[in-house]
Please model this.
Amino acid sequence: MMQSFFEWMQGLPFSAWMLEETWASPIIQCAHLVALVGFAGAVLVVDMRLLGRGLIKTPLNQLARELDRWMIWSFVALFVTGAPQVLSTALKQYYSPFFWWKMQIIVIGLLFNFTIRRRVAFAEEGTLGHWPKVVGFLSIGIWTSVSVYARLIGLLS
Amino acid sequence: MRSLFEWVDALPSSIALRESLNAYPTMLTIHVVSMCLFAGLIAYWDMRLVGLTLRKVPVSNIPTRLFPWALTGYGINLITGGLLLYSQPMRYYGNFYFWAKMALMLIAGINMFWFHYATYKSVQAWDQGREIPLNARLAGIVSLVLWAAVVVTGRMMAYSGLMPGWWNNLNIGA
Ligand code: HEM
Ligand code: HEM
Model:
């Protein structure tokens, strides 16, 4: 089922176009990395604050509310620049364990963000004991491993 | 310059790195992750200067509180980048994007120092305000564009077949 879905993606005219057009893949890959920098900064500034580092003079929930939009929109940019690469190299992705780990951790990361991390970051500060630190630590770990697995798709598959 | 690259290329430690199966993937992955730490934080500092985000954070808070982390990322980035270069100098010697990236980093550095020793001196006057001087906003925009270009040329180094025609005509790698 999954395999035929990936075969279907690989067979799309768009995928053929991506592979034929010399500049399509490099431009998309560069854009994916620029989006990644925007995403990383938005996540890190808040995660560091959760850990009690960085911009500690600014209230946590103010920082988190402001950077929430940047995190969401850079994720959208990551998706928009990641999806065409999945289409054009669907079979390579399908057979790479790193791709599946990356996608699973992204799902975990999104669920974690929208259920727990946001709630903790938006809460009144000083009411949650050590939890903000745990959440900041997990968030950095989740998105770092997404990046590591992502880079390994190209290097080790 | 060329003889320096050729000399490194022949060093036993360079050859050992080049022939190791794990060295390249490990260094490149750390290069990308440390780039996130450095460029991610610098991007939000630049956007603060431009006035795009974090407008309630006093400007002077960011250098004192975030730069140590950004510089840590940068340090790791320079080390892993240096090792990648050290392991295959002749692969990058004729690479247009490699030299473009180094030039862009240099210009970004000059922009940073210029901003720091000229415009930033008056920060007390506009620390809290929403009215950021034009020079500071310009420095922010220039920095955003330059670092994005460093990221792009960094990724493009892998595409040795996509270098500009005039560069190929110089025959530097041959
Ligand atoms: C749903 C959203 C996303 C999709 C569909 C996606 C898809 C992809 C694909 C297909 C590649 C190319 C892998 C290869 O064949 O070499 C890639 C590269 C990469 N992705 Fe994503 N990605 C997404 C989100 C993310 C996120 C959230 C992160 C990090 C937090 C990330 C980090 C990276 C990195 C570091 C690379 C390697 C970049 C390179 O050197 O080209 N991606 N992505
Ligand atoms: C002394 C400084 C640096 C050196 C010598 C250096 C060198 C390198 C080398 C040799 C590669 C591997 C290219 C390849 O084989 O495809 C690379 C990749 C890269 N570098 Fe650097 N680099 C430096 C600093 C930076 C900085 C400051 C940034 C960003 C702000 C950066 C961003 C990148 C990116 C995005 C890649 C592509 C990674 C990928 O393929 O996923 N580098 N660099």
